[in-house]
C-alpha cells in the first residue's frame, strides 16, 4: 500500500512540475543545412512568428517564458533521431516540432514514443507518418500526401485525361504517387505510367523520354504531373524539351516562390496548393503577410505558413491542457481546432492529421512578378475532401 501511495505522489509531483515549470521548452528539430535549407528557414521563421502572434508578442504563456531550442538534422535520419533524443533527454523539452524531410521524420517517430513526448510533424508530408508508422505521440500540422493528391486529382482528373507521374524515389515521392493514384479513381482520368528519379537528379533526359513514350500510346489530353521537393528544376528541364510538340502538358502542385519561377513559363497550368500568401483571407494570414513584408521585404512562403500553424497548435494545446504534461496535451489535441494562416485546422482524433483547406489554382503571369501566380479557382475545404485514415 505504501508503494502505491509513494507512486501516486511521485506521479502527482511530475504532473505538477509539468504544469508549473518556469519555462516552456520547445525543440525545433529540422534540416537547417542540406538541400532543403530554404524550406527549413521558412519553417523556423514561421514557427517564431507564430509563437509571437499566439502570445500577443510576449513569448510567454501564463507567465512562463517560451524557450525554443534548435537542432539541425542535416537532413540525415540517424542525426535527426539523435537530435530528438538529445532534445527530449538532455534538454528536457516539453514538446518538439519538425522535421523537413519525410525520411528523417520516419526515423524520429519511435523516439517520441520511447520518451513519451509529443512531436508535431511540420512540414514532412509522407502519408506513412500519420499512417503505418504512426504512434499516439505524433501530431501533424502539415498536409499529408493524400491531401496533396486528392486536391490535385480534383484539379486534373477528368474523363479522357492520361497522366504520367514524375516523383523523387523516397518516401515523399512514393507516398505521393500512391495517394495520387488512389485519388484519381472515379475521376475518369488514367494513370498511364510512374517514373521515379533520385532526389539529386539534374539531368531529366532519360526520365522524360520514358514518360513521353508512355504518353505517345495514349489518346486525349496528356499530362506529366510532377511531385518534387528541393532543387533540380524538373519543370524547367521538361519545359525545355518542348513537350507541347508532343501534345503533352506539364502540371504540378504548389511550391515555394523560388520554385514557382519555373511556373511563369506555364500560364494556364492547373494544380492544387497548400498555401499561397494572397489566397487565404483571415486575420492570422493578414498579420503574417503584413509583418513578413515589413521584416523581410517579401511575402511569407509555403513553409512559413506551416511553421506558424505548428506554433499556434502548440500554444492552443498548452492552453487547453493547462499543462505541458504529455497525457494532458494528447487529450487536448485530439479533435482540437486551432487557427492558422490558412484558417481553421483540426487534428483528426484517429490519426492526429490536421484537416485543412487546399486550393485549386490556375497559373497567371504578370510581368512585375517573378513567379507564376497561383490564382484561386476554388477552395477545397476540409469537409469536402475524404482523406483516408491509414492507421
UniProtKB/TrEMBL annotation:
Limits of the Leucine-binding protein domain: 23-364
Leader sequence residues: 1-21
UniProt key word Phosphoprotein: no
Gene3D superfamilies: 3.40.50.2300
InterPro entries assigned: BCAA_transport, Leu-bd, Peripla_BP_I
Membrane-crossing segments per the record: none
Pfam families membership: Peripla_BP_6
UniProt record, GO biological process: amino acid transport
Keywords: Amino-acid transport, Signal, Transport
Family of this protein: Belongs to the leucine-binding protein family.
Name used for this protein in its record: Amino acid/amide ABC transporter substrate-binding protein, HAAT family
Amino acid at each position: 500500500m505504501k508503494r502505491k501511495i509513494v507512486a501516486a505522489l511521485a506521479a502527482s509531483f511530475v504532473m505538477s512540475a509539468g504544469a508549473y515549470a518556469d519555462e516552456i521548452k520547445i525543440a525545433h528539430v529540422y534540416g537547417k543545412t542540406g538541400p532543403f535549407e530554404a524550406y527549413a528557414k521558412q519553417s523556423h521563421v514561421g514557427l517564431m512568428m507564430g509563437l509571437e502572434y499566439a502570445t500577443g508578442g510576449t513569448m510567454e504563456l501564463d507567465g512562463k517564458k517560451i524557450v525554443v531550442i534548435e537542432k539541425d538534422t542535416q537532413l540525415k535520419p540517424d542525426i535527426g533521431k539523435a537530435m530528438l533524443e538529445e532534445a527530449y533527454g538532455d534538454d528536457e523539452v516539453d514538446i518538439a516540432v519538425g522535421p523537413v524531410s519525410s525520411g528523417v521524420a520516419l526515423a524520429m517517430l519511435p523516439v517520441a514514443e520511447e520518451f513519451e513526448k509529443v512531436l508535431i510533424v511540420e512540414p514532412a508530408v509522407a502519408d506513412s507518418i500519420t499512417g503505418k508508422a504512426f504512434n499516439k505521440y505524433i501530431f501533424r500540422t502539415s498536409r499529408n500526401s493524400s491531401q496533396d493528391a486528392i486536391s490535385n486529382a480534383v484539379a486534373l482528373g477528368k474523363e479522357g485525361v492520361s497522366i504520367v507521374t514524375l516523383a523523387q524515389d523516397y518516401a515523399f515521392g512514393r507516398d505521393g504517387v500512391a495517394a495520387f493514384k488512389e485519388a484519381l479513381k472515379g475521376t475518369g482520368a488514367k494513370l498511364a505510367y510512374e517514373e521515379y528519379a533520385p532526389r539529386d537528379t539534374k539531368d531529366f533526359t532519360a526520365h522524360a523520354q520514358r514518360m513521353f513514350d508512355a504518353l505517345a500510346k495514349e489518346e486525349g489530353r496528356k499530362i506529366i504531373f510532377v511531385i518534387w521537393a528541393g532543387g533540380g528544376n524538373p519543370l524547367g528541364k521538361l519545359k525545355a524539351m518542348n513537350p507541347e510538340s508532343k501534345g503533352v502538358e506539364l502540371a504540378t502542385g504548389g511550391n515555394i516562390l523560388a520554385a514557382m519561377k519555373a511556373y511563369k513559363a506555364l500560364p494556364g497550368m492547373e494544380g492544387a496548393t497548400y498555401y499561397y500568401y494572397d489566397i487565404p483571407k483571415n486575420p492570422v494570414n493578414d498579420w503574417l503577410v503584413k509583418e513578413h513584408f515589413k521584416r523581410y521585404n517579401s511575402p511569407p512562403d509555403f513553409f512559413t505558413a506551416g511553421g506558424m500553424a505548428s506554433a499556434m497548435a502548440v500554444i492552443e494545446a498548452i492552453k487547453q491542457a493547462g499543462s505541458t504534461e504529455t497525457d494532458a496535451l494528447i487529450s487536448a489535441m485530439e479533435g482540437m481546432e486551432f487557427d492558422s494562416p490558412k484558417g481553421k485546422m483540426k487534428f483528426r482524433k484517429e490519426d492526429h492529421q490536421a484537416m485543412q483547406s487546399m486550393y485549386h489554382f490556375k497559373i497567371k503571369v504578370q510581368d512585375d512578378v517573378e513567379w507564376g501566380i497561383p490564382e484561386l479557382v476554388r477552395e477545397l475545404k476540409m469537409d469536402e475532401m475524404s482523406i483516408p485514415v491509414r492507421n
